[in-house]
Amino acid sequence: MELFDLSGRVAVITGGNGGLGLGMARGLVKAGANVAIWARNADKNAKALLELKSIGNGEVKAISCDVSQDAQIEDAMGATLGAFGRVDACFANAGISGAGTAIPDITEEGWDHTMAVNARGPALTYKHVTRHMIERAKNGDAGGKLIVTSSAQAIMGVNRSTDYAASKAAVTALTRGAAFELARHQITANALLFGFYETEITAKADPRFAEWIERRIPLRRFGDHAGLEGLAVFLASPHSDYITGQSLPVDGGLSIS
């Protein structure tokens, strides 16, 4: 058995049809895992499916799902179990950039929409995934991995981004609570506080913001998508079994600058 062979394991990745999620999916399928992508955009789902099937040994399914809707998550979980029979790792990655408003201009609608996707989405995803993991544990098959995409903004300030920052801080708290509550079932929970990666979300940002961030990053470069592959494989593998409740910055040192 290879050190990081994930053959026979099943991973769910919400928002796995692009950006950080697709980067992580690439690593998982290359390591032999079966992967279920839950995402909304049918065209992007189809494109990601073709790519992932061409680069790995694991099976891949793309399932339409809006993580702000509990019923759609429940259906996606049912479809995943119907296809693969189990889920060993869940990457709650789906997210949006936020309303981009200054504090005096916050609206109920903007705030609630950001929270619905970025904070409530991971919680509801965990709800359905852990029901399955706990049932497996009761039948003598304990264990599971929960990994959420957070942000360096959870621990640092950025102008006109309070709703986004608050949503990402919320999932770091979710991580600690989940790690404590679910440890009895050998389920671990961790958060990845990503810095600046070139994605569809960051492409919408003011170019001056990207320049300002790059100057603040000690390593003086944006995140490397290829590096996401090994990170995901490690966190989905048994070699990370003793890591739980942690919020790990993956930001080139941005959060310490």
TrEMBL record:
Biological processes, Gene Ontology terms: fatty acid biosynthetic process
Q: What InterPro entries has UniProt attached to this entry?
A: Sc_DH/Rdtase_CS, SDR_fam
Q: What GO molecular function terms would the record report?
A: oxidoreductase activity, acting on the CH-OH group of donors, NAD or NADP as acceptor; quinone binding
Pfam families in the cross-refs: adh_short_C2
Q: Which UniProt keywords apply?
A: Oxidoreductase
Coiled coil ranges: none
- Family to which the UniProt record says this protein belongs: Belongs to the short-chain dehydrogenases/reductases (SDR) family.
What's the protein here called?
SDR family oxidoreductase
